Amino acid sequence: MVSTTPATRAPAAPDPGPLRPPRSARALVAAGLLIAAVAVTWLTFWWIGLSPASLAAGLDDTMRLLRRMWPPDLPGAGDVASMIAETLLIAVAGTGLAVLASVPLAFVAARTHRGPRWLRPAARVVVVLTRAVPTLAFAILFVRIFGLGPLAGALAVAVHSVGMIAKLLADAVEEADPVPAEAARACGAGEVQVAVSTVLPRVFPALAGIVLHRLDINIRASAVLGVVGAGGIGVALQTALGSLNYHRAAGIICVIVVLVLLLELLSVAVRRRTVHHAVHRGRAGRSAGDTTRTAALPAGRAPHDVGWDRGRVLRVTGAAAAGVVFLVSLWSLDPDPGRLSGAWPNLRGVLTGMWPPAFSGDLLMAVLESLLMALGAASAGAACGLVLALLTAVNTTPWRPLSAVVRVLLVVVRGIPDLVYALLFVAALGLGPFAGFLALWISSTALAAKFFADSLEQLDPLPHEALTSVGARRWQAFAAGIWPQFVPSFTGNGLFVADLALRESVVLGIAGAGGVGYLMQESIATLRYDTTAAIVIAIAVVVYAIETLARVARRHLL
Fold first, then answer.
1. 222-263, pLDDT tens digit by residue?
2. pTM for the full model?
3. Residue 137 and residue 116: Cα distance in Å, rounded?
4. 147's torsion region: left (phi>0), alpha (psi -120 to 50) or beta?
5. How far is it, in rounded angstroms, from Cα 483 to Cα 255?
6. CA 130 to chain CA mean position, Å
7. At CA 530, angle to CA 528 and CA 534, rounded to 5?
8. Among 120, 127, 366, 507, which is least packed by CB within 10 angstroms?
């Protein structure tokens, strides 16, 4: 008799998940990065002549300057409101223009692009170049082309923002579900129709989050664009420092810090609201996902979401209000057609003068100085930031009140732009890379401490709790239960801090704090645009190389 019992199948092998490099390879990469960081830090100290004695003397000079700045002389309420309004309008106008340019650029740069093949590499070059060159460097160029004022600042913010927005949006486009797009193509839709009707609605939530994050960054950047004459509250700061009115400079710095801190609180509240809304809609969609009526609805949409409910009215009203604010910000830039047409000869002179680029030994040495200054400050900042993170994270701090105090201190330190630190150190210590190194060291320490503390708090607590439950000491539990998990995050965040420090080192040179920034400002002032082009190319190559190194290191560590 033949058995009718179904054949027993062997259990399926569990999915191994993404393959990770061997433990020995990860340890080798981490050790190599640590040795390189120590070597670069030592070379930086030797290059700028940093020693305990010089550091103590520099800090003493800085304290004397701070005593001269006390008490701060706050501008009048009307002047403060006017400067803050101009700063915010510059950021809003620049971010809006960047969004208009980034959306088509992101679709072209994505790997899913089906148009002409030559467009994709060209779009990626634009994304890399605009992201590599700092906002203040673009501001110097646009001030030369369009003259002093907020128009140059808004265009600088827009061009630099295109790189980040287009890159992140291209990643979201590549990760979108391809089935609706393929179905639209099968029905004869063109690439523009496919992008607008099937892809853009699905990536719109990601685009909204990217724009909010970029707007936060641009407001911080706009606060110091006035240092090179590009409008905003930075104009008043540069005027006060140039006239040696340190009391007024301290008052303006206080205004900038308060503005940045308020914006950070607002940004955190908006992000939490956005995440809460996304989670709520996702749960609603899943709860109704087994019904026939929701089969035709987009992901995350429930039947009660259809129609003009309160949430949709608020979203449409908010979008309309954002559009009105953007138009007002554009109008505030005074885009006079006569002024724009008069800028054409300047633009033509800049572009024609940039070719061929003029590389020189002085340029290479300035780039090397910026690179050493940034990497050395990032390495020292990562070491100091690790100590502060251990005092801040809830799972490593020895005393909770100390954690709260350190966290507040880090927020205040991060609220002061790097260029403000550089201006203060240049005023106290004089021109040179020493001032730039100290400014980058402070900002890198605060930034690294935030990243490290967030990563420590997200680790699996079970190994640490198991070790402490069997009597392990605090340092033993940390070394065996926390540190092995933390190494990949420590390395990845440290490389990200180095990337940011490298971009900022170019900016600090504009204030006289060493590096290639001073050379760039001088080349534009003397109309040597071939040198300017060489500097821009060198900056883009170095920044792209650091990004590639960080990407490779993360791949081998994670």
1. 877 877 777 777 778 778 877 778 888 888 888 877 877 777
2. 0.75
3. 32
4. left
5. 40
6. 13
7. 120
8. 120
